[in-house]
Design brief:
InterPro entries: KH_dom-like_a/b, OsmC/Ohr_fam, OsmC/Ohr_hydroprdx_reductase, OsmC/Ohrsf. It comes from Winogradskyella eximia. The protein is α+β, with helices and mostly antiparallel strands. 30% of the residues lie in helices and 30% in strands. The chain has 2 domains: 1-30; 43-448, no CATH class. The chain has helices spanning 2-28, 31-41, 134-157, 201-213, 216-222, 283-289, 344-366, 411-424, 426-432; strands at residues 51-52, 56-58, 82-92, 100-106, 115-119, 163-175, 183-196, 226-233, 244-247, 253-255, 258-263, 294-303, 313-318, 324-329, 373-385, 393-406, 436-443, 446-448. The strands form 2 sheets. Strands 1, 2, 3, 4, 5, 8, 9, 15 and 16 form a 9-stranded mixed β-sheet that branches. A 9-stranded mixed β-sheet has the order 10-11-14-13-12-6-7-17-18.
Length: 449
């Protein structure tokens, strides 16, 4: 009995020591890190009823932002400009606190109500998330937009290319994420273009040069883009758009018979991109390095060769959780057209708004902010200059960004929430700053200068 008693006492002592050490470590952490760990470990609230969504589906009706009135510039030269509105809101689900949906619409297209997508970064280990991540959509938009411009440039030259593949990789990084001065960055964007064709190399280089000049999303990254942010506190902004319980039962999305989304059986790897080996670390190990987390997202845009939809591309995208998704991107052919899938710039716009929404989620958790609801509403003005000339160029003119929150917190706390969310947004900082671009070209698998 005495021996068992000594063992019990020793065991209790070890437990007390371990608990004391854990408590010391816990309370030595900044409150923001403790709040983040708690946020990640605790499941969300469960609900009796959930709205069922597809990963990608059409909007039921046109979007009506509550913080601004969507507008377009009506001039003779604006026919090739594009104005895209995005609205994001959180989706309540106990399996993921990062589940959200984004709604997007290109303005001034007859009878078009745009698209809705699910985005998620909160999947448990070994499970598929409810949808690709915001930065997966963002990168998909980049790759597909360049792909489309190559096709258009080739058409302008009167030549048909046998096959086009565009691979884009974005390297994202946080710097002191939980600090009040934390920031997110898009360090470098790499694009590899492969064209299969028997056309002479000089013509291919000319086509690529024209495509790069009109690569709207790429030009937005390589140059400083004007961002006009706004904070909207309280008001009657949450009657139409608000966080509500929702789920998706499959990674398969269908629009009629057209397959919009699926997860590949085996993760797809790019052929020409050199990617860093991902670190095999679970969520608990990741917390220690999360403040300065660095990761890559890639997208591969491939030709579908649909004669009726010449700009329809299949885009394979990676996610932070490891799997790869296949989605599709399409483009308007005329003002009365109906696309089979979101456009490349709609994906890019969605990725930007959804990324900011992710940061508002994380910052509100770090600050232990008391709020009822929040969302993001954006409009991005895509412009074109020197139309029908060799100097033609496309770019983003302005990003109008609105963060809306319903909260009784102090103005000072809400201003911090707002500014820190903007600063941590990788996608927004990629637009705001000049991003390093690395671009390589291949003709029939052989690199050209």
């Amino acid at each position: 009995m005495k021996k068992k008693s000594k063992i019990a006492i020793a065991f209790t002592a070890v437990v007390v020591i371990l608990a004391s050490v854990a408590a010391i470590i816990w309370f030595s952490m900044p409150s923001e890190q403790r709040n983040m760990i708690t946020f990640m470990m605790v499941h969300g609230e469960s609900y009796d009823n959930y709205q069922e969504y597809q990963v990608i589906e059409r909007n039921d009706k046109a979007l009506a932002p509550t913080s601004f009135i969507p507008s377009v510039v009506d001039t003779i030269l604006s026919n090739n400009d594009s104005y895209i509105v995005a609205i994001t809101e959180m989706v309540k689900n106990e399996k993921s606190k990062m589940l959200k949906k984004g709604m997007v619409q290109t303005l001034d297209v007859a009878d078009d109500t745009g698209w809705q997508v699910l985005a998620d970064e909160g999947a448990a280990e070994g499970e598929y998330p409810f949808g690709p991540s915001p930065l997966s959509y963002y990168t998909a938009g980049l790759a597909s937009n360049l792909h489309t411009q190559i096709v258009k440039a080739a058409n302008g030259k009167g030549v048909a290319l046998d096959n086009i593949t565009v691979e884009v990789s974005n390297t994202f990084r946080w710097n002191k994420m939980s600090s009040i001065k934390g920031a997110g960055f898009l360090d470098v964007s790499t694009a590899n273009i492969n064209i299969d064709s028997d056309i002479e190399e000089e013509t291919i280089q000319t086509i690529i040069e024209v495509a790069l000049n009109t690569w709207t999303a790429g030009n937005a990254l390589r140059n400083k883009t004007v961002i006009e942010p706004h904070l909207i506190i309280n008001g009657n902004n949450f009657d139409t758009y608000k966080a509500s319980p929702g789920t998706s039962n499959s990674e398969i999305s269908l629009d009629g018979d057209f397959l919009l989304t699926s997860v590949t059986h085996i993760p797809t790897k790019p052929k020409y991109l050199e990617l860093k080996a991902p670190k095999n670390e679970g969520i608990f190990n990741m917390l220690s390095t999360m403040d300065n987390l660095e990761f890559e997202i890639f997208a591969i845009s491939e030709s579908v060769d649909n004669n009726e939809r010449p700009y329809l591309n299949k885009v394979t995208i990676s996610t932070p959780s490891g799997e790869t998704w296949e989605i599709y991107a399409d483009e308007f052919i005329n003002e009365n057209d109906k696309t089979l899938a979101p456009t490349s710039l709609e994906y890019f716009t969605l990725g930007t708004a959804l990324c900011l929404t992710s940061q508002t989620t994380l910052v509100s958790a770090m600050m232990n902010l008391d709020f009822t609801d929040y969302r993001v509403e954006n409009q991005i003005d895509f412009r074109q200059e020197a139309i029908d000339s060799t100097e033609m160029v496309r770019y983003i003119d302005t990003v109008h960004s609105y963060i809306l929150i319903q909260s009784d917190e102090s103005q000072e706390r809400l201003e911090r929430f707002y500014n820190q969310s903007l600063s941590l947004c990788f996608a927004g900082e990629g637009l705001k700053s000049v991003t390093e671009m690395k671009i390589h070209y291949y003709l029939n698998g052989k690199q050209i200068q």
